[in-house]
Amino acid sequence: MGLTRLTGAAVLAGVTALIAPVGVTAAWAEPLRIEITDGVIEPLPFAAPAFQAETSGAGQYAAEIARLVAADLAGTGLFREIPPSAFISNVTSFASPVAYEDWRAINAQALITGAVSENGGNISVKFRVFDVFSGQQLGDGLQFGGSATAWRRMAHKVADVVYSRITGESGYFDSRVVFVSESGPKNARRKRLAVMDYDGANVQFLTDSSSLVLAPRFSPAGDKVLYTSYETGFPQVNVLDVNSVTKRILSSKEGTMTFAPRFSPDGSRVVYSLSAGGNTDIYTMNVNGGGEQRLTSSPSIETAPSYSPDGQYIVFESDRSGTQQLYIMSAGGGEARRISFGPGRYGTPVWSPRGDLIAFTKQNSGRFHIGVMRTDGSEERLLTASFLDEGPTWSPNGRVIMFTRESQGASGAPALYSVDISGRNLRRVVTDGPASDPAWSPLLK
C-alpha cells in the first residue's frame, strides 16, 4: 500500500463530473431486492464482467474499476460474486442486449455491466444494473466522470448505487476513515493521525508523530477532524481542517484537560470532557470557540459523549452508579437516564446515524465486546468478543461498525476490524502497520 504525505485538498479530491443517466428506465413488477434483517442472509449471487474499454487508454481503469466494484459488494457479506470462469457468455459491448438465459444458467441474480473511456487524464465510467431473473434493468444507467486519479472513488460510487438499488438503503463505500496510525515498539509507540478510504487504501497522514494523538472524529461535512493531542504536555482537544491540514486548540484553560470530543450533528458545536480539580464533566462549546456550557455536574467521571442524529440528546458513560455505565440526557444537560443494566462495564457509546441504536464497548468476565442496544437500553446484542475490542464507529448508513482490536502478548498490536450489526461478516481492515481509534466519515460529496 502506498503511503503519501497529505498535501492540500488531496484528501477529498473527488469526482468532478457527476451523475448522468444512460439509457431509459425499464419497469418491472417485483424488483430484485435483498431484505436486510438480523437473521442469516444467503448472499445474493451477482456477476460483474470486465467493464469495456471504449478508448485505447482505458483498459487498465476498466479492469480495476470492475474488480473494485465486485470487491465492495462481496465484502458486505450480502453479495457473492460468481467467478468469471463460470460465465457462459461475456459482455463485449456496453450497448449489446443482455443474454439473460446465459446469466440465469449460472444462477446470477444481478448483473453489472460497464464501460470506461479515457481522454487527457480524465475518465468516464458508465454502468447498468440488471435483474437477471425478471429480465429487467434496475433503474437508469448512470455515468461518473473525473480525473483518472479518482478512479477508486468512481468505483466506490458505482458500488454504492448497486448496493442501494438492490437493498433499498444507501451505501457506504465512497467514504473515508480517520484513525491513529502507530509505529515503533509496544512500549514506545509513535502515533499520528491518518485518513484512508473505507477499505484501507489511499492512506494519507494528517499529523506527524512528534506528540501523542488520540480519538479523531470527523465533522458531519467531513471537512474537519476533532482529536485529542498531548502536544502541550496535557490532553487538549484540537480541530484540524482536512483540506488545508491546519490545526488549532479548541479550548485551553490553565489546570484543565480536555478530551473525548465529538461534533454536534449540524457541525456547529463540540461536546467533550473537561477535567479540572480531579473532577471530569461533559461540556459543549462552539466549534469556532466560545459559548462554553457545562452539561453535567457530578463527583463521578463523565466522558465519551455522543449526540443523537437529531441533536436533541447525548449518550455518555459515567461511573456515578459505582461502575462504568451508559446514560442519556438532553443535549442541554439536566437529569440523565441510565440505559445499560447488563453484567459488566459499558463505555464509548456512539449513536447510530439512523438514530435507532447505540454502539458501545463492554467489558465482562475478562473479555471485551462491541455491542449494540436500542436507545432505551433494550435488545442488547454483543457482536464481538476478544482479548480487547473497543471504540466502535458507524458506517454512514448505520449497517456496519468499525472498531479497534488489540492482540495479546508482548508482540500484540492494535488493528482495525469491521462487523455488521447482526454480528456477521467480521473482517480485518488491512493497514500498513498497527492502527487504532477509527472514525468513519459521512459519504463523500
TrEMBL record:
Location of the protein in the cell: Periplasm
Keywords for this protein: Cell cycle, Cell division, Periplasm, Signal
Protein name: Tol-Pal system protein TolB
Membership in a protein family: Belongs to the TolB family.
Domain of life: Bacteria
InterPro entries xref list: 6-blade_b-propeller_TolB-like, Tol-Pal_TolB, TolB_N, WD40
A Pfam family annotated for this UniProt entry: TolB_N
Name of encoding gene: tolB
Function: Part of the Tol-Pal system, which plays a role in outer membrane invagination during cell division and is important for maintaining outer membrane integrity.
Record's keyword annotation contains Signal: yes
Segments traversing the membrane: none
Gene3D superfamilies (alphabetical): TolB, C-terminal domain, TolB, N-terminal domain
Principal subcellular localization: periplasm
Annotated ranges, domain TolB N-terminal: 32-138
Subunit (UniProt): The Tol-Pal system is composed of five core proteins: the inner membrane proteins TolA, TolQ and TolR, the periplasmic protein TolB and the outer membrane protein Pal. They form a network linking the inner and outer membranes and the peptidoglycan layer.
